[in-house]
Hints:
By secondary structure, the protein is α/β, with parallel strands linked by helices. It has three domains: 14-75, Ubiquitin-like (UB roll) (Roll), CATH 3.10.20.30; 80-223, Threonyl-trna Synthetase, Chain A, domain 2 (Threonyl-tRNA Synthetase, Chain A, domain 2, 2-Layer Sandwich); 241-333 and 346-363 and 408-560, Rossmann fold (3-Layer(aba) Sandwich). Helix content is 36%, strand content 20%. The chain has a five-stranded mixed β-sheet with strand order 2-1-7-4-5, with helices on both faces. Strand 1 and strand 2 form a beta hairpin. Helix 5 (173-180) crosses helix 7 and helix 14 packs across helix 15.
Amino acid sequence: MYLCTQISITMEQTVTIYCKNTKEYVQVACGTSLQEFYDSLNLSLPYPVLAARVNYKVQSLHFVLYKPKDVEFIDATSESGRRCYIRSLSMLTACAVSELWPGYDLRLEHPISNGFYCTLRSSSGDVMNMTEDKICMLKQRMDSIVQQDRKIVTEERRTKEVIELFAGRGASETTLFETLGNPYCRYYRMGDYIDYYTGALVPSTKYLNVYDVVSYQGNILLRIPSNEDPCKLAPMCVEDKRYGIFQEYVGWNKLLNISNVGEFNRACKNQRSFEMIKLSEALHEKKVALIADQIAHREGGIPKFVLISGPSSSGKTTFSKRLTIQLMVNGIRPVVISMDNYFVNREDTPRDENGQWDFEHLETLDLPLLRAHVQALLNGEIVSLPFYNFETGMREYRGDTLQLKQDTVVILEGLHALNPALLPNIPREATFKIYVNSLTTVNLDNHNWIPTVDVRLIRRIVRDYRYRGYSARETIARLDSVERGANRWIAPFQEEADVMFNSALLFELAVLKRHAEPILDEVPKYCDEYTTAHRLKKYLSYFESIPEHEIPPTSFLREFVGGSSFRY
């Protein structure tokens, strides 16, 4: 016979919480919510608190404290707080859509123009034509829900019951739930409306006071707060070429009848992974070939310089090598020059506001030398090419020279290749500009997306661990600096490109999963980088793992997981 002792928790029992905002230990009653704990502290953060990091995991303010924890309250100035706000804004918009047009669901297609491009789709896939009147109705309903201050609460049930709940409205989430295999599932409720999200949401709609919905390409642009000032909307910008690339990728996925991760996983379980790999790789090869054809047959003559730019781990190095092959097919003799070889000596590198070397700055390049060499090559002169020794931090000359012949094209690859300030005196017709990025591969469901920055970060973690000896923690620690440089020196100039290339592959996270998960497991649970590591592991957990032996040696993915036939 077994005895069961029941322990009742009373409000007199307390637990010790370390508040990282105040750097103090605080005794709180067991069962206290984060919201109640925050209210008791009289903290004053620059902006309203949206959530908290509890032992470095982001939790909603409804989270209840029963054990000793480290707690850090966060607002929209933090990356985690910003993601929480945008997720909550998605639920607000989706709820308003469900009330106005039953039978239609909001679909967040992709980020663009400092917001999110959205469509309204029926269960049969029909897209609603969004007139100005309809968009006005949507905005008014969203405003009304905010003014009502509807509570956003977390619920948890057996997955079978949750599938039945969501299936009743024909939601895309059911396919995802079915393929995950978890016995229980958490979801969110706002009144009678339920929704699923991968992370924490704000406690109620009163927190959502900075947003807008406007017409964009015949559908909706959900506008979000600015990174710099969360009290203001991020400025809209024209990104027609980026929009075209996203639409192209959506079309590619339609060829496989896959629009979300649930459908992807189902296809993998039905032995269709090799089909996805072959088609995705073929589409990439065709796109690279078409770009080479554009260069070879450009009206006005073949450009002498092909400038290729893209953020870290976008695949621009592999793109340069694959473009080289396709240019040769067109009878062109390409020569690849890395702009890294034009770095100034390390002691002359610009420094940031913290006194650290700013390796993303335009003036890390010896601009006078680079400009002089490009002009000399255009004039038919012989140029002595520099080589940058990263070990010594010094420029060297190893006897390499270059002179352009009639059929020669120089491929210049680097962070600043699209910046008009790079080569201001070179005729525009002498250049062809290409922007390479790994854009989001496939959405988790209609309301959950995987940000581009996270796809590239997973690539970089695998590559840096394999080839550069960096731990995941070290790679994550450099993320802010790398992305700050990309946002300053790359993103503003992407529309300068003649063409854009999306190096993302539909199946890549399913392949990277096996490589990345053990590396991410090494990140200690007591450090700031664990917040990002935990988020990335959660994204990867949604994917059915697939083997990589069918991936060709010229694939963009080989740059990161190994096995490439190219030399890097």
